[in-house]
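residues and backbone:
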Amino acid sequence: QVQLVESGGGLVQAGGSLRLSCAASGRTFSSYAMGWFRQAPGKERDFVAAINWSGASTRFGESVAGRFTISRDNAKNTVYLQMTSLKPEDTAVYYCVGGSSRYVGPDWDYWGQGTQVTVSS
């Protein structure tokens, strides 16, 4: 059974930084793309970032490009989301997702429970 467990969320002031982690288990981590989505209260779920199986290719949502980075450590079965220059509009529940193939695509087979990120102004 695949499990994705996020950690690292919390409260941070605007302009600050935070790093989220997602520990994966239940399948061969290095064979799949990974990603992050987020959902703010009353809003739709938005794509944040994704990374292919090797870490060589990444994609970002428009609102976070240039401020967030995504990385992975296949030896530790963990994907990270480094968030910098945080804004109040980044406040949301952040979800780790597991892809259906090595490459970033539209399908995400597995979702974590989410971790809350709150950015105060």
